[in-house]
Amino acid sequence: MEDDDRCSSNNPGGIEQEEEDEDGTVLRFLDSLDSYLTLLDALSSTLRQGWFELASARHSMGSSCISSVLLDQKVRSAATTFQVGKSIDGSPSESHPSFAISKWASSRDGKCSFGEMEVSHVQKTSKNSELRHRGSSNFYDTTEEHDLRINASSTIGDGDVQKERSKSLSVFGTLVSPKLRAAQVSFETALDAIVEIANIRSSMLCAFTQLQQEMKEKGLG
Amino acid sequence: MAGRGQIRTNNSALIAMIADEDTVTGFLMAGVGNVDLRRKTNYLIVDSKTTVKAIEDAFKEFTSREDIAVVLISQYIANMIRFLVDSYNKPVPAILEIPSKDHPYDPAHDSVLSRVRYLFSAESVASGRR
């Protein structure tokens, strides 16, 4: 015990640094947990909007015009894909996967897509220092913002992206309801949230693993 | 958990879905649908006739494919194969439980939150005090 006291008094800086690192891990974990729950709440809102718009489109176009029976089994590649990379928090041994989305990639060659712009918006919002209130879906839209997003999607996206979007809807007919297009935008927005959730999940699990190791070293786990 | 096992990087990975018709239809409109030469899809539409075995097989297939980055599964469907979902611990593909139209998201059933929940349990706090 006296030896420990001597050690701690000989190296107070090292112990303080260790405690700071632990606090940092705990904070990172708690931040990730909070972001995870907030983003899931936002995703729920976006999906609800998408389902509502899909139901409206079904009402105007007819149930038989929008059903899974029409989803043909023709060989095709996904136009929207994910990129999986490695992210390192702290030590190199604590790498975890990071995800990014590439929307309508078959029509692009390295251009910044509407989707990527959306991810940036989400990242900025998530770093906002204002208190987040779950249940109010601060990340995503009021009706006005959603309408702006629909209008933006038809103007910001270049011609090729619009072609890919139309091609994706063509399985439901040549002329589709505006509500179906709105539903498409909602589900694209949901994909942005999913990328963020995947990254936050990855970061949370990494911080959790570090905390578990620290607790084991201290004999608490 | 994160960090265990090799993380396979991939520039063009798919998102798989095990969900109800409306959810799958919506995401297919967003361009994530893929059908390969063997007519294998990256989604399973679950309805009242879908068996638990079919859901289990789809989950096992999607989680073992190297070209899939994320598996989206409606939480009420994940509850049908909870043991399988909770025992999955690879970093990629990431398993995300999402709400469905008739079943809102419940954090208490989320497999990721269940894993980390014990940090806040009375036992872990009590062991820290000893």
TrEMBL record, chain B:
Claim: Transport is one of the keywords in the record: yes
Keywords of the record: Hydrogen ion transport, Ion transport, Transport
GO cellular component, one term: proton-transporting V-type ATPase, V1 domain
InterPro entries named among the record's database cross-references: ATPase_V1-cplx_f_g_su (IPR008218), ATPase_V1-cplx_fsu_euk (IPR005772), ATPase_V1_fsu_sf (IPR036906)
Pfam families assigned: ATP-synt_F
Record keyword Isomerase present: no
Signal peptide: none
Domain of life per record: Eukaryota
UniProt GO molecular function: proton-transporting ATPase activity, rotational mechanism
Family label: Belongs to the V-ATPase F subunit family.
Subunit field text: V-ATPase is a heteromultimeric enzyme made up of two complexes: the ATP-hydrolytic V1 complex and the proton translocation V0 complex.
Matching NCBIfam families: V_ATP_synt_F (TIGR01101)
Biological function: Subunit of the V1 complex of vacuolar(H+)-ATPase (V-ATPase), a multisubunit enzyme composed of a peripheral complex (V1) that hydrolyzes ATP and a membrane integral complex (V0) that translocates protons. V-ATPase is responsible for acidifying and maintaining the pH of intracellular compartments.
Protein name: V-type proton ATPase subunit F
Annotated organism of origin: Musa balbisiana (Banana)
